[in-house]
Amino acid sequence: MSDDFFIGWAPTPEPDRRFLLRAALGLVAIGAGAGGLLASQQAPPGPGQWKQGEVRTWRGLLVREPYPALRTLDLDGSPRTAFLATSGKLGVQGRLTNEMCGAVAVRGSLIARGRHAMIAVPDGDDWITLASASEPDLAEMREEDLGEVLLVGEILDSKCWFGAMRPGQGKPHKSCASLCLRGGLPAAFCAGPNCGEGSEAPLFLDAQGRAHGHELLSLAADPVRALGRLVRVGDVTQFRADLSNVARL
């Protein structure tokens, strides 16, 4: 019996060594299994990507409302809208001067998910310059009312959902979404129970097609039901709904 008694400063008895080895291997196996099970239950991160290492110049027409954006042919040759953001959790509204209008050239990296696009611009003052006249059809932003809808989903910041964060939705993302929306990044409405898997999230605006204020923050990344209208402006689908018609579920 004295040979099997465990003393911390003495050599571990052979039976105890065997037990501790089996217990350690068992705990490793249980941890790996639990990790795999938890990972399998997580929502898909989505197909969005941020190509941070590929900074280039994009040319097009600067649009200021409802959020700063670039109307450009540089994405795929057709008139497309790429919203503008800083490399952090801020929009570019505070970095635009009155002289910045019309045709411009913008430096930045692309964040894209499906047909959604955003250009993250670098710090400093040389991210945007005036350019020669852009293509005439870039200015054509025909508005089409698609009708009233009742949508269930989440109000998110578009930068993260487009691909800056993966995943960019759900409760774990609530604080980040609130900071991004507070900083002036475009709000998006991700409909459906599996919005992490989708590639469509309309721009979320008020009933007049304007950006919501900070009263939107308390609803960010929570399941909500919203009554409003879908409107297509150019290549961008908007979901216009007053917050009085948005209810947390």
- The residue fraction in helices comes out at 10-25%
Instruction: Report strand %.
Output: 25-35%
Q: What is the CA-atom radius of gyration, in angstroms?
A: 25 Å
Total DSSP E strands: 13
| Helix/strand structural class | alpha+beta
Largest sheet: 6 strands, mixed
Report on the architecture of this protein.
This protein is α+β, with helices and mostly antiparallel strands and 249 residues long. The chain folds into 2 domains: 91 residues, Beta Barrel (OB fold (Dihydrolipoamide Acetyltransferase, E2P)); 106 residues, Beta Barrel (OB fold (Dihydrolipoamide Acetyltransferase, E2P)), CATH 2.40.50. 18% of the residues lie in helices and 33% in strands. It contains 3 helices and 13 strands. Strands 8, 9, 10, 11, 12 and 13 form a 6-stranded mixed sheet that branches. It has a 5-stranded mixed barrel with strand order 2-3-4-6-5. A hairpin with a 2-residue loop joins β11 and β12. It is elongated. The mean pLDDT is 87.
Task: Set down the secondary structure blueprint.
Layout lengths: L13 H28 L7 E2 L5 E8 L5 E4 L7 E7 L16 E11 L2 E6 L6 E3 L12 E15 H7 L9 H9 L4 E5 L11 E3 L17 E11 L2 E5 L5 E3 L1
Parallel strand pairs: 4-6, 10-12
Antiparallel strand pairs: 1-5, 2-3, 2-5, 3-4, 5-6, 5-7, 8-9, 8-11, 11-12, 11-13
Short characterization:
The chain is α+β, with helices and mostly antiparallel strands.
